[in-house]
């Protein structure tokens, strides 16, 4: 069996896969994907622009929302070129280094989104449990520190996972199972022992996305306890209603992620296109739906977006 050694890793070319068994329909499949990408890019860009330009949105909650929109934009852009390139031009080839770069940014923006959702959960807890000290606890400097720590955390945790792939050798088959570079896919093509890569990758995801999910759940336990201690039913309803958008964003992030994990583990006999579509859903659902949820559920965002669109004559 021919093997590609580490010394020639820069010359390795992987072949990405569109939607298996549906290649004849790639042109038609590209239509909803184009709409999805256009919605994700325009929606998150509008929210970012509104938060930057509207002084009424210069508050902790909206700063965190701007970070979430940045993560969603990053996720969308990371897969845009390869996915639409396959659907439109059957451009399946991707170099080893380009593959690692794409993989890093997909994982980075995923971890960033998870971290921002945790920060937003903390923001909601402080706003509900200690509203009088909200502005003094979540100052602009502290929010900037949180943002920088999110970037550093993602970089430190994910760099070893991606860098360790350079030590692998690859067999003659270089066909990946998705339309973007997915860490388990690359490992499966290796002829080398990948146990270290698996352990480092699993550790990175557990210590970021896994830990974040636990603390988000803990935050909501504390929020529910605080809300239930409020005497007035109207005040309880008002307090909890401020969390609805965030709960929706958390669900949109974790449900596709959990579904993808279950499909990979327990539905190995499912048609290949099922795995592909769920993997695409996992990456594209949050960037598309988060702007819609926050625009519909948050009055201040809705007003700001209308104001921005009117100022542009739309």
Layout of secondary structure:
Layout: E1 13-15, H1 26-53, H2 60-89, E2 93-95, H3 96-129, H4 134-137, H5 140-163, H6 183-188, H7 195-228, H8 233-241, H9 244-266, H10 272-297, H11 299-311
Short précis:
With 314 residues, this protein is an all-alpha fold. It has helices spanning 26-53, 60-89, 96-129, 134-137, 140-163, 183-188, 195-228, 233-241, 244-266, 272-297, 299-311, and strands at 13-15, 93-95. Strands 1-2 form a two-stranded antiparallel ribbon.
Walk me through the structure:
- By secondary structure, the chain is mostly helical.
- It has eleven helices and two strands, in the order E-H-H-E-H-H-H-H-H-H-H-H-H.
- It has helices spanning 26-53, 60-89, 96-129, 134-137, 140-163, 183-188, 195-228, 233-241, 244-266, 272-297, 299-311, and strands spanning 13-15, 93-95.
- The chain has a two-stranded antiparallel ribbon with strand order 1-2.
- It is globular and about 65 Å long.
- The chain crosses the membrane at residues 29-52, 64-89, 101-122, 143-165, 199-223, 244-267, 273-293.
- This is Olfactory receptor.
- One of its GO terms (biological process) is cellular response to lipid.
- One of its GO terms (molecular function) is G protein-coupled receptor activity.
- Pfam families: 7tm_4.
């Amino acid at each position: 069996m021919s093997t590609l050694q580490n010394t020639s890793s820069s010359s390795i070319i992987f072949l990405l896969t569109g939607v298996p068994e549906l290649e004849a329909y790639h042109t038609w499949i590209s239509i909803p994907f184009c709409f999805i990408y256009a919605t994700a890019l325009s929606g998150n860009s509008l929210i970012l622009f509104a938060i930057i330009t509207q002084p009424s949105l210069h508050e902790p909650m909206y700063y965190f929302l701007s970070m979430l929109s940045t993560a969603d934009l990053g996720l969308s852009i990371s897969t845009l070129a390869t996915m639409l390139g396959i659907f439109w031009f059957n451009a399946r080839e991707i170099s080893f280094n380009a593959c690692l770069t794409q993989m890093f940014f997909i994982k980075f923006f995923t971890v960033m989104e998870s971290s921002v959702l945790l920060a937003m959960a903390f923001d909601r807890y402080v706003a509900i449990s200690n509203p009088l000290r909200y502005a003094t606890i979540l100052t602009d400097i502290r929010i900037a520190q949180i943002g920088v720590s999110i970037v550093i955390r993602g970089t430190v945790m994910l760099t070893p996972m991606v860098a360790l792939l350079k030590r692998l050798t690859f067999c003659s088959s270089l066909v990946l199972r998705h339309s973007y570079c997915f860490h388990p896919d690359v490992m499966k093509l290796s002829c080398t022992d990948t146990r270290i890569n698996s352990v480092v990758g699993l550790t990175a995801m557990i210590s970021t996305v896994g830990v974040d999910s636990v603390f988000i759940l803990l935050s909501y336990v504390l929020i529910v306890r605080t809300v239930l201690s409020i005497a007035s039913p109207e005040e309880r309803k008002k307090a909890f209603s401020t969390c609805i958008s965030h709960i929706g964003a958390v669900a949109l992030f974790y449900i596709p992620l959990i579904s993808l994990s279950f499909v990979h583990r327990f539905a190995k006999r499912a048609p290949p296109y099922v795995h592909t579509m769920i993997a695409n859903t996992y990456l594209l659902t949050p960037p598309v739906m988060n702007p819609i949820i926050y625009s519909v559920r948050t009055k201040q965002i809705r007003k700001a977006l209308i104001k921005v669109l009117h100022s542009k004559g739309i």
